[in-house]
Design goal:
This protein is an alpha+beta fold and about 200 residues long. It has one domain: Muramoyl-pentapeptide Carboxypeptidase, domain 2, CATH 3.30.1380. About 40% of the residues lie in helices and about 15% in strands. It has six helices and four strands; from the N terminus they run αααβαβααββ. α2 packs across α6.
Length: about 200
């Protein structure tokens, strides 16, 4: 009900407010988000076997996409999302299978009225965009990591699905997540050989 949703949003807002006020360095913030996502994924796998991370050296793009959809369906059944849409118009299985620079694939995922939306918009504004409460995105990113997929770029923005001529009446109803994915593992930054560089 509305009371339960309000309590959930309030709890989420309070938790992420503490995180925002801690002003963690970007690396620690990223670690926190990864741990949150991993915990959520572990909890989801028991109820959604279809969301098991894809494994192997050459995971098909369709298999990755099926797992993302299974997780989103689970969130929708749980009442966290009113609905969702996955735009895979950039997907090309043949290019993905090449596992090269040409394999980069963009996905746009629209989350309709997630339960964290109001808390997210308020804290996102209060923190200057540093912190956005939410559970769906960390969960999806954890699944991609577990499937060996590299996320090259990630961006999120709020969307009001209903046009309003008065900008003051802007009231977001969806969260749009844009992901740029690659089947190629990230290249570790090169280190200078021993004895080379400052202090040698």
């Amino acid at each position: 009900g509305d009371v339960g949703l309000y309590e959930f949003e309030l709890s989420l807002y309070a938790l992420f407010t503490l995180l925002s006020e801690a002003r963690l360095p970007p690396a620690r913030q990223k670690t926190f988000n990864a741990l949150l996502g991993d915990s959520l994924l572990a909890a989801q796998l028991s109820s959604s076997p279809a969301a098991q991370p894809a494994t192997g050296s050459a995971v098909p793009l369709k298999r990755v996409e099926a797992g993302l959809e299974a997780l989103l369906q689970t969130l929708q059944r749980a009442g966290y999302l009113a609905g969702f849409k996955i735009d895979n118009s950039d997907a090309d299985e043949a290019l993905w299978a090449q596992r090269s620079e040409l394999s980069t694939t963009r996905y746009t995922i629209t989350l309709a009225n997630p339960a964290s939306l109001r808390a997210a918009t308020q804290l996102n504004a209060a923190s200057g965009g540093r912190v956005t409460p939410g559970l769906a995105v960390p969960l999806l990113l954890a699944y991609l990591r577990a499937s060996g997929v590299t996320v090259l770029q990630q961006s999120e923005y709020f969307l009001d699905d209903e046009y309003k001529p008065n900008p003051i009446a802007y009231n977001p109803s969806s969260l749009v997540v844009e992901l740029e994915l690659s089947p190629v593992p990230p290249v570790a930054s090169a280190r200078p050989p021993p004895g080379f560089g400052y202090g040698s």
